[in-house]
Every structure is written in C-alpha cells, then in structure tokens.
Amino acid sequence: MNTLDKFIKLGTAGEGTYGIVYKAKNKVTGKSVALKRIKLEKFSKDDQTEGVPSTAIREISILKGLRHSAIIELQDVMYTSDKLYLVFEYLDLDLKRYLDGTMKPMHKELIRSYLKQLCEGLAYLHTHRILHRDIKPQNLLVDKEGHIKIADFGLSRCFSVPTKSYTHEVVTMWYRAPELLLGSKLYTNGVDIWSLGCVMAEMLIKRALFPGDSEIDQIFKIFKILGTPNEEMWPGVATLPQYEVSFPQWKPSDLKLHVSFNDAEEEEFMKMMLVYDPFVRKSAKQLLTVPYLRKAKLTTPNMRPFPDVSEEY
C-alpha cells in the first residue's frame, strides 16, 4: 500500500466537490502532484459505502478507466485511518482563476485551442458513455504550456441508450442546460455541450453569460437573451415539468449585444452549443468537424496569472 510519506505538501491548491486539494511534490520523482483529501469520519461506519462518499467512489471508478490528454489523470488512491487521498497530475490553476487573474481579454487563438481540447475530451467521455454533468471554469484546469483538462468527476455518471431517468439537480446553475432547469429527467450528453457554450461565453466576456441567483431567475436570464422557447423552436418543451404557459414571452436578441465575438466563425460556433432543443444541439464529435476548430493549434496563455505555490505546508 502506498503511503503519504513519499509526498511533500507545498500548499493548498483549492477545494473540490468533497475535499481540499493540495499541491505536493513526489520525493522520488520530483514531480508535482495534486492531492485531493477526503475526510472519512463524516460518514457513518455502517453506511454501505463504508465511510467513503459516493462522489469519491464515482470519481475513482470513472477516472481509473480513462486516459486522454484533455482529462485529468488519476495516478493513485491512498488510504489512511480516517482519510482518503486521490493523487492527480498537477496543473497550475483552474480556468476561473486564470480568467480572474488576467486584465486583458483572452486571445482568440487561445480560446479556440481550449475549445478544441475540451471538445476532444468530451467526445472521448461521451463515446465511453460518461456524462460529466458539472462543466464549469472551476473544473477546467490549465497549465503554462496551453493545455486544458477536464477535472472533478464527482457528479459524473455513466449513461445508456435509450437514456434513463436521472436527477435534474446537477450542473452548477449558471452552466445548467435549459432541459435540466425545466425539470427533464431524461437527458444525455447535450447537457455538457450547453455548459461548454456557457464556458466559451465566459472566456470571451470574463463573466458568466447567465448568472442566475435562483432556478427561475436562471431560466429567465436565458429566455431574455435566447427568447422564450416554444414548441416551434423546441418540440416537447411544453411537456417539461417546470414549463409554464404563463412564462413571460421574450423574443430572441442578437448574441452580439451580449458577447464580444472576435469574428463570425466564433459566434456561429457558440450558437451551435447554446441551442434549446437538445436533439438539435451539436455533439462534441460533430463540433470537432466544424472549420472553426479545425484551425486550432496549441497556444500558450499569458504567464503572469500563474502563481507558484511554493510555501511549505
């Protein structure tokens, strides 16, 4: 059994769905790793998960079988008497902290590069019948070389075809697809694509496109920009549990009034993801064939926002 003795904690890197993440260094290899610590004493001893939260079990079981350049690598799992440690490859910071730390707009080629990598990662996940269900800037990790990786699989799950009934209480609200907000329990990989569209908007305007403070406020913020959906633009929307015929009727507005696009290709790409009807929304595999992404190349981000976590913990 591996122990923590071979790691030196260097500092706190952040917090995940269910635990603190530390930056650490492997004494043998000298390489940096991220240690996600999960306390076990919060869970009853007679629980069927034996004190390990279901989110941790889910993340471990999913990540153990995944190998992709755009998905965080789970390198090891270690136990102590009251804690569980997940050992991940280390990346410098998450996309949210990167956006908050840069004064200038993101370069359009960096956005394009990030989106291609994320679409490749999502296509890989969806091909393996895995929904991430929590795509947001805080769960996307970036490094100085221009790589971006999908992390935090605590809310992920495998899906089947035809789709089963799942809880709609997933995805951080600002990035939650309209079918989830309207109570659909039958959904598939389109929920991740909608979230990616919201992330793209945030890369362009440095803030959330739909920053709702409640579910109904979230719904209305989407409607005010994209228009109130009807049966013509989204067949079956009126049958969703949370849909109300009394919803205010907003007309779609021009996305350029809300997002500063670099060019028409960029705008069209976002529109492919922010589509109401999940059956019309492009899949990650389809998005990879769009000319906008075919031009993508690895682009190095501005180095200044990358902090060096060097203090001894």
UniProtKB/TrEMBL annotation:
GO cellular component: cyclin-dependent protein kinase holoenzyme complex; cytoplasm; nucleus
Catalyzed chemical reaction(s): L-seryl-[protein] + ATP = O-phospho-L-seryl-[protein] + ADP + H(+); L-threonyl-[protein] + ATP = O-phospho-L-threonyl-[protein] + ADP + H(+)
Alphabetical keyword list: ATP-binding, Kinase, Nucleotide-binding, Serine/threonine-protein kinase, Transferase
GO terms, biological process: G1/S transition of mitotic cell cycle; positive regulation of cell cycle process; positive regulation of meiotic cell cycle; regulation of G2/M transition of mitotic cell cycle; regulation of gene expression; signal transduction
Source organism superkingdom: Eukaryota
SMART domains assigned: S_TKc
Annotated Protein kinase domain residues: 7-293
A GO molecular function held by the record: cyclin-dependent protein serine/threonine kinase activity
Keyword hit for Nucleotide-binding: yes
PROSITE patterns, alphabetized: PROTEIN_KINASE_DOM, PROTEIN_KINASE_ST
Protein's UniProt name: cyclin-dependent kinase
